Fold:
Amino acid sequence: MTTTDLPASLISTLPGQYYTDPAIFSLEQSHVFENMWFCAVRSSDLPTPGSFKKVQVGRESVLVVRSRDGQLRSFLNICRHRGAQICTDDSGQVKRAFQCPYHAWTYDLDGKLVAAPNLTKMPDIDRVEYGLVPVALREWLGYAWVCLSKEPPSFEDDVVGAVVERLGDVESIDHYQLDSLKVGRRITYDVKANWKLIIENFMECYHCATIHPELTEVLPEFADGYAAQYFVGHGAEFGDDVKGFTVDGSEGFDKLPGVDDDHDRRYYAITVRPTVFINLVPDHVIFHRMFPVSVDRTIVECDWLYSHEVVESGKDVTRSVELFHRVNEQDFEACERTQPAMSSRAYAKGGVLVPSEHHIGAFHEWLTQRLAH
Structure:
């Protein structure tokens, strides 16, 4: 059956090979993850000069570090001498410099080459030119976003623009003051599924009544199968008897100071391509970052962000964390159940999208256009 043979209610998905072919995943690494703004790390995870975190972005190992002036900087995690990785630990703290464990080439926190065996006998070496290769970095919403491209796309268009497209203006997300919130809980999920299956799942609510009983109790309109996040400015309203965005609908915490009455008792979901989901509720924010590892494996790191008062006072966040933790587990189980079928001959030409999922077609068009360039 071709696209033209489909009834008007249905449109085609991507063919199954897009979720199983290593060659397509390689194109995604080079054309998507390595050429777009990629959300790498929560800025507060690097609190002091010398704090660092290693992040995999596409095929590259990237080092994000707090420099001596307090600013975050990012570099390729590769020694300029013979290519050894500078840092093999996922995160840590150095005093003043990074030293390659192979031949002891040493770089300061700004990436400059500052020492190496016999370096004084090589006066023609430019210590900046042979420093670590810098990577573009921007901080927004309390996270460091990096881009490997030599000519990064507009951060305002691609990242800020995705939020504006969803909420109608950037001021609406400013109300939640994400950069001042604290991580109350972080859970890392190892999902045995292609990253696109996770995005597609997040973008639709046709499945919500089937697999998300707790969520649809709190957000009754999600039981109707339509993804409220794709109506500009619309937030799914809490049920009449629901007191808070918690696993049992019980009371949560005081709403965040900047959240106004128009955003109270509402849930907003935002997709920032390629790998970020932002979920806004009155008293906390849930922030997902995806790290595609292979064609059939994706690491998802999820932060639950609360006010300083909630975290520092030691208040119990279990009931609010548990709601979306269950949603995540339910979603990821569904994605893992779907992944094996992507290589079936029954899915060789893909599946179909019903009307409440048609907006996923725009994601597919965006992806195929990027891979073609």
About this structure: The mean pLDDT is 95. The radius of gyration is 22 Å. DSSP finds nine helices and 18 strands in the chain. The domain at 168-372 is CATH 3.90.380.10 (Naphthalene 1,2-dioxygenase Alpha Subunit; Chain A, domain 1).
